[in-house]
Amino acid sequence: MPITIRQIHPVFVGEVSGIDIAKAVTREDAQAIDAGMAKYAVLVFRDQKLTDEQQMAFTGNFGPIEDARGGNITKPQDRRLVEGMNDLSNLAKDGSPLPRDSRQRLFNIGNMLWHSDSSFRVIPAKYSLLSARTVNPRGGNTEFADMRAAYDALDDETKCEIADLVCEHSLMYSRGSLGFLDYSEEEKLMFKPVLQRLVRQHPVNGRKSLYLSSHAGGIVSMSMPEARILLRDLTEHATQSKFVYVHRWRPNDFVIWDNRQTMHRVRRFDESQPRDMRRTTVAGEAPTMAQ
Ligand SMILES: [Fe+2]
After folding, report:
1. Ligand 1 centroid to residue 256 C-alpha, Å
2. Quick count: other Cβ atoms within 10 Å of Cβ 134?
3. What pLDDT was estimated at residue 85?
4. How far is the CA of 119 from the centre of ligand 1 (A)?
């Protein structure tokens, strides 16, 4: 049976049926998913029971897996999952929810801010693929915003004003906006800001989008207050409900999003209960600009 994609939001997001991700997918199916990603920017798959190995194998259809180093503060000895898997759970290595004052947990609260994955890397991520292994009983929805629709809806004056702007992105900006300010010298070096264009163009469909992220904390050649208010205004514009899809997780849901065309955030959940979400990330192909 060929795969089918049904649009489930007025401006983006498709729900895919007719595929079992746990099995080796055909070249045709992988191409259909890639084409669906360019068009819908977010794809939802239901009832996909996966092992980490199956998830990584499927991810490999869309490009090399991103090197996760430099993306968090978790020490190698505290890692719960194998290399290649990003742990977006609230769990410690022993499987129990992280204590309330855990530095790792507090750092991960930054995922509740609107962002695009790895915008703090020189070459930011292409796709993120998230598998719901254990769904939290309360909250924990993931919201996605279509940055192409948001760009299209800007007035011409604003489009002209922002056309060539370059932002500085760092994990220290997103976490800093929540008051998470203490970093070791090693972490400061690791989280050194990188430059990203504010407006990017998609390599496949040619559409322009706002490349926003809570990791953006400054704009080159602009004063900090002016830069931050512009970023805040644009983010408010881009995350209006008409541009947002709310994903309510069911066990074994699998969602792929294109970080070049969307932002996302997770909503608060019951931190005393497990939430086991596992992400694989397809590396981006090129920087958005010279550093
Ligand atoms: Fe994320």
Report:
1. 11
2. 17
3. 95
4. 10
Distance 264 CA to ligand 1 centre (A): 6
Ion ligand 1: residues, Cβ under 5 Å = 117
Ligand 1 centroid vs 281 CA: distance in angstroms? 10
The parts of the chain modelled with pLDDT lower than 50 are none
Q: pTM of the prediction?
A: 0.97
pLDDT at 70: 84
Structural Rg of the chain based on CA atoms:
18
| pLDDT, position 157 | 98
Cα(57) to centroid of ligand 1, in Å?
21
Residue 165: the pLDDT is 98
